[in-house]
Amino acid sequence: MIGGRPDMVDDEHRLKMLMVAGLGGDEAAYRAVLGALARHLRGFFRRRLASRPADCEDLVQETLLAVHTRRHTFDRSQPLTPWVFAIARYKLVDWLRRHARQDALHDPVDEWRNDLAVEGGQEADTARHDVSELLGTLPAKQREPIRLVKLEGLSVVEAAERTGLSVSAVKVGIHRGLKKLAAQFRP
Predict the structure, then answer these.
(1) How confident is the model at residue 76 (pLDDT cuts 50, 70, 90)?
(2) Can you give the pTM of this predicted structure?
(3) CATH class for domain 118-184?
């Protein structure tokens, strides 16, 4: 059930009926239930990831894809929304785990930024040169996102707009670039 209010109970019933009709082959009903679920899921993810709105839509799409691929497991005798939101919670937990690991990879560049902020002429110039040299070993699709997001402090969305890359490509570029830089320092 979506909630305790009568209109929400009606919404649960309507969504379940659309899902059952969709499972029975009614394509219009299936499209309608996925559209309605997408609206509910956007709210669910926005409340939990208010500081990462660009990632909410990705999670909505991942959840809808999981609902679609697992639709055969839906028990028609049970309410629909608890099943859908259980899938959404798993997707959110997976996303949080992935980003916790990725964020851990970002620390060395954050430390470089602190080194660059050091006042003292030659030390700051040397650090700037070292970072530029390291970033120069990366392809532009990795170097630019790291420079813009990690060194200049732009958001991933701003970096995507500036480079003409998609938000996903910026994230992938940062991840792969940092991984490649870290590999240079491993014995």
Answers:
(1) very high
(2) 0.51
(3) mainly alpha
